[in-house]
Fold:
Amino acid sequence: MDQSVFDDPRITAVGLLVEAYTGLSARFAAQFEEHGLSPVEFEVLTRLARSPGNQLRMTDLAAQTSLSTSGVTRVVDRMERDDLLCRRACPSDRRSSYAAVTATGLARLDETLPGHLRIIEEWFTGQLEPAALAALLDGLRRVRDAVYPGATAGSTDPAPIDEADEAGC
Amino acid sequence: MDQSVFDDPRITAVGLLVEAYTGLSARFAAQFEEHGLSPVEFEVLTRLARSPGNQLRMTDLAAQTSLSTSGVTRVVDRMERDDLLCRRACPSDRRSSYAAVTATGLARLDETLPGHLRIIEEWFTGQLEPAALAALLDGLRRVRDAVYPGATAGSTDPAPIDEADEAGC
DNA sequence: ACCCAACGATTGACTGAGCAACTATAAACT
DNA sequence: AGTTTATAGTTGCTCAGTCAATCGTTGGGT
Structure:
């Protein structure tokens, strides 16, 4: 094996991306854990919280996360057991169900987010001057656009929500 | 939940990093699979192949990968079964064993690497003009340096290798 | 109206990974 | 030398996640 292959600038580039990513992920995970959340759970909470009515159909949730539909079923099981979210019947399609954030889930997210933002600032965005950061993000965006197929996978058929009942489950 | 939180530029920045990373990872994984390798197996092979004597002690291998020591034990089990590498006794410390790439393993790596480099080029480095790429890598490096603790975890006590016996197992 | 292909969610079987406990060896201390 | 402590690797247990099969529901074709 020719050692020089591993000094290839392309390998180095990937190494940087991987290490930056995994390093940041570890920081995030540690902070999530302080609030009793796993990375997946945090992702699920944010995806739901930013969706109309704080809810999403199981399939759409799967499409927006790193999980398969069966994976979503199981995460939702756990989170429903912990009262972070709940399932709701979909009025227009009896096959579907919504996963909806509970008040507890929203509170948990609220208490987790500030620290999360602080960590991003501290270890990522704050590490670079504005111009350098912009350049980094620009590069990432172009790679992302090339490589990430589901950048625009929105939920369809947002069911009408009774605001008063929201998170009431 | 205030929707505007999710438009925070810090959240967006992380999103870009995550999506670029996972998108690229998926491309890599698909190509590895064409050659019968999982991402971890590819990582193990490269780490070993770039080490003196094409081998590394189990612990050092764990330190250089995303795996725990028990995780390494199990990957090495599988890869030894598939004849991609083999265990060797460490002459100077009877507790240790080396994982050493076999000829089969080296061949597999050789057949996988060109395509891997091509994919990096196609979806990552080739997406940007040289200056933009340099800026991206520079940013990544600074984040990596801040956030990735084990950037310099080398193996200790590289055992003397009989070159003739190498990969003979 | 009926059939049937497609779809949403769940379940069972399996896999890969981590943690903690354990064994064997090595090193350090007295 | 003998005891104690630390280290290298493996193993049992558990858990999160995927794939494939399944169940109920929907909607289109005739």
User: Anything to note?
Assistant: The radius of gyration of chain B is 19 Å. Chain B touches chain A through 57 residues (CB under 8 Å).
